[in-house]
Design brief:
Strand content: over 45%
Oligomer: single chain
Distance between the termini: 22 Å
Number of domains: 1
CATH class: Mainly Beta
Helix content: under 10%
Structural class: mainly beta
Amino acid sequence: MTTVKKHVCEKRADERGWVIDPIVPPPKGEPLGHAHLASLEPGAIRGNHVHSGAAEFVLVWGGRVEIAWEEAGRVAREEASDDVLVVFEIPPGVAHAVTNVGDTTAYLIAYYFGAPEDGWPETSRKAIT
């Protein structure tokens, strides 16, 4: 069964703040194809879509969010926050959404591996939240 994977980011911190490495190493020989950064206001939802041909990697910080995805005929949900920074690896064909359930702006970085000529990220709308 294909499911969402979590990659916990090592957070290194000092008096200036924290640093993490948000990009999970790509499969051997795969280029980083596309990355984007987005804000998510309280109550807002991003996603509610599916990518048929590429896994999407999503890291959220700066707020409290709920990641939702379809798994085994149901919607699985997990909260994420700055407490433990996690990159969610969403496989191709898995519908997913990110909802800001906190009271401050949250931010996310999302990226894909592969070459642009591969037609990524083929995205189809599929509301799950």
